Amino acid sequence: MDFEPKDKIDELFHSVGKYRQSSEFRELLNFCRKFHYLSPYNAMLVQIQKPGASFVQTAGKWKSTYNVGIKQTARPLMILIPFGPVDFVFDLADIEGDSKGLIPESVLLPFKTKGEISVKIVDRLVNNLKFYGIKLEFVSFGNQQQAQIERLKFPGINKIEIKYKNILYEIALPEYFLISINSKSSKEELFAGIIHELAHFFCCHLYPVTDVWWKHRNLNHAEKEFEAETIAWLICERIGIKNPSDAYLSGYLDKNNQVPSISMECILKATNTIEALFESQRIEEGYLAKKDDKVKKQLQEMKK
Each residue of 61-82: pLDDT tens digit? Predict the structure, then answer.
């Protein structure tokens, strides 16, 4: 069961009205970008509890990494942790002694210089698509289109080899969705394009394979695009590369007093899920192994 703060994010966003104003929403995004070493959920939790926090770590991390203690009057900030309820972090302002020069500039100003994205990250992202039933195809788009995702009318099959107890097994993975990407894309454009389309996927904008995959969210086009552009902007900024979503979001927030009727929980959850694809993954971690009966059966047979 998810911890309660996750369930309350959309209530905070819609009922209370917090972050519905464009200026507040922009501030929240910048905060999540700055705290790239925290999950998006935890960055938002820190922002809610202490707006303007500069750098947070657990008491143990402050001691082991920076050799400083925490003031007795310090205010702990709650964050979520995997496989457990909560942990507590403390802001830079709550440490004992002089903090000047304590934190490296690369930590406090991670986006001062925009660099190229790692080939390893792009390769892992592309490789992990198959575990979610997604096929990637390079096509010749015009200059006005970078990528698109769609549900395949006729699902395909991708056969891969998996080693289990030093034995190679062939597993057939269904391909239910297709991401088409411009064949002229640079490495960074490829990355940003896939991220945008995955945002649509993980925000449940597409019709699912079956009801057990997800409940389709009936949003209008503007709401879907705002969620996808927000996720693409946030991920690209947190990883330190420029992205085309910057112009879209800046233009929208400058012209509109309020953001559309979106789900902050979906945005944060999708961001967290997509960022996990930058690491090496196993087939068991994808949607297919969890929600597709055909794949489940193959894995069960393999492990007999």
Answer: 888 888 888 998 989 999 888 7
Strand ranges inside the chain, DSSP E: 56-57, 77-81, 84-91, 134-139, 147-164, 167-182
Q: How many CB atoms are located within 10 Å of the residue 273 CB?
A: 16
Considering the entire predicted model, what is its pTM? Answer: 0.82
Strand ranges in 53-204 using DSSP code E only, listed in sequence order:
56-57, 77-81, 84-91, 134-139, 147-164, 167-182
The residue behind tokens 């995702």 is: 149
Q: Do residues 48 and 268 make contact, with C-beta atoms less than 8 angstroms apart?
A: no
Q: Given a cut of 70, is residue 107 above it in pLDDT?
A: no
> If you search the block for the tokens 């996927």, which residue do you land on?
201
- Residue listed under structure tokens 């193959």: 298
Place of tokens 């064949």: 183
CB 49 within 8 A of CB 77: yes
Burial (CB count <10 Å: 0-12, 13-18, 19+), residue 290: middle
Residue 274 pLDDT class (50, 70, 90 cuts): very high
229 vs 75: CA distance, rounded Å: 34
Residues 6+ apart with CB under 8 A from 199: 227, 228, 229, 230, 231, 232, 270, 274
Reading the block at residue 236, the tokens are 């690209």
pLDDT classification of 242: cutoffs 50, 70, 90: confident
Q: How many CA atoms lie within 13 A of 248 on its CB side?
A: 17
Q: For residues 272 and 269, what is the distance between their CA atoms, to the nearest angstrom?
A: 5
For residue 260, which of 249, 271, 268 has the smallest C-alpha distance? 249
Helix and strand numbers (H, E) in the chain are 12, 6
